Amino acid sequence: MVNHPEAPILAFAKDLDANLGFIGQGADTEQLLSIVVRNLSAKPTDFTVLDGGVACCGGRDHSAERVVDPVFLRALHDKGGRDLLIGIPHTKALYAIASSANQPARRSFATMLEFELDRCSDINETPITDMVLRVSDGRIVTAFSLDEFIV
Fold first, then answer.
1. What does the DSSP assignment read for 6-68?
2. What predicted TM-score, i.e. pTM, was given to this entire model?
């Protein structure tokens, strides 16, 4: 799980039969990111807005990767405003809420993230992060721990 003072950290991997192979130093990360963004932006921008205004994109491989997809983020911003809080507990889940959401909605958001993180081993998913990302106008501007968010 990524919980690092310089988080968020972006890692690149490629499919290798039944595994992923991480791409290391020396790779052209700008080129890799442009390929990832192009591929993700071609996908439908499907998410569901739940009670309390929490948006959820989940159940598919690469749901969490949508955090770098400008088309997807624009669709989220259209629903939740220009300043969002995003959680990506594992590869098959992304949750978002307006940063101006009321306290009950923020508690629901935090509870969903905690639930997803807690059940990772049950659903055979590797946790990604317990960090909450603040995304403003399509750009990740800061990250803080879920514990800091709940306080």
1. T------EEEETTEEEE--TTS-HHHHHHHHHHHHHTS----EE-GGG-EEEESSTTTGGGGG
2. 0.82
